[in-house]
Amino acid sequence: MTRSAAGVMNAVLQDPEKPVPPSGPAWGAIISLSLGTFGLVTAEFLPVSLLTPLAHDLGISEGAAGQAMTATAIVGAISAPTVAIITKRLDRRTVMWTMTLLLILSDVLAAGAWSLAVLLTARVVLGIALGGFWSMSAALAMRLVPSHLLPRAMSIILTGVSVATVCAAPIGAYVGEIWGWRSAFMLAAAGGVATLLVQLLTIPRLPPIGVASFRNLLDVAKIPMVKIALLVVLLVASGHFAGITYIRAFLEKIPALDVETISLVLLAFGICGFFGNLAGGLLAEYNLKAVAALAPLLIAIAAVSLLTAGASALASAIAVAAWGFAFGAVPVGLQTWMVRRAVPEQAQSAGVLLVTVFQVAIAAGAIFGGLLVENAGITSAIAYSAVATFVAALIVFLLGPKRET
Question: Between the CA of residue 91 and those of 207, 208, 210, what are the distances in Å?
Fold first, then answer.
């Protein structure tokens, strides 16, 4: 995963909400949550593959267009810990339906955007949906299936993230080239409508249980190892998104790849990210420190490779694929680290902190990356990615979790 898979897995650590529909496991509802994750991740990352034509059509710079990622991240960071509280008296299915409606609205607004202001408004709406969905989706899964079936339910939900990670960027680039970038957002909106219909038919009544609170967040944030983990999250996520937001522009200008080739490179990025997620999960069971350190180190190596050998189409493609594999493993290592450093009753707060800081880091990375692109060129954003992720890897090697964790 991506950043979004980490959000889903974080929610599973929330306090158990035990009631299961009398008819047994509600697999249809679980599938509808998977469709929701697919739609959110797809909408979140479409600007990466459509950045150049989008910026040209709106008459803005690529750096300004990249701030569409920033708006989503900032709002997502705010809404992740607050939506559950604001909606604490509402039926959970009503909240989920509302989040999907906001997803559809965001895609429609983006497709019809005639200015940067409208595009940013669309991305703000998406940020609300994103934060709200991640704050409760897995907690709902805990109510939809018995506890012994929860791992299977979560694997289904995460399938939506994995498929979107693989498909969103290359399909967005391809559709945008054939029918225009607006059609890619309209296609995403149509997928959102289909998702909403499935959710309306499958999610049962789920009255709110318990009251969410911000109280434990500060307590968890004071744990020394959690502080270190959050610093690593900030460095890795900001470094990743400072560079990857402008990767299409880099591939167009440095190795001068055509759109079809760029689509294939982005597809390789997504596929490798999927396998990186699997590899990270397996390795984390045996050596958590290795996952937490080697993933950002590989991103740094990939970024340096782009800077030094990026003029070669093959070298660029390999570097981007390696970058995708590495980032796929990042959420697994960092999330496991965070949760293991908090006592069981603080696990929910640790997860919320992770998602919030991750979103803040995305915003910081996109903003700083945009400033670098505007003032020093695209390669400067890639250089920042290399530096930030290398420093993160160094911190983990020196101060990270012990081998036995």
Answer: 4, 6, 12
CA-nearest of 284, 367, 278, 277 to 327 is 277
Whole-angstrom distance, CA of residue 393 vs CA of residue 291: 10
- Widest Cα–Cα separation across the chain: 61
d(CA 130, CA 71): 12
Residues ≥6 apart with Cβ < 8 Å to 19: 143, 209
Specify the amino acid at residue 96.
M
Mean pLDDT of the chain: 79
Report CA-CA distances (Å) from 31 to 83, 155, 171, 356.
22, 10, 22, 26
pLDDT surpassing 90 at residue 192: yes
Query: Which of helix, strand or coil describes residue 206?
Result: coil
Cα R_g (the chain), whole angstroms: 20
pLDDT in the model for residue 201? 92
Output b/e per residue, 131-161; b: 16+ Cβ within 10 A: bbbbbbbbbbbbbbbeeebbeebbebbbebb
3-state SS assignment for residue 73: helix
From CA 38, how far away is CA 33, in angstroms rounded? Answer: 9
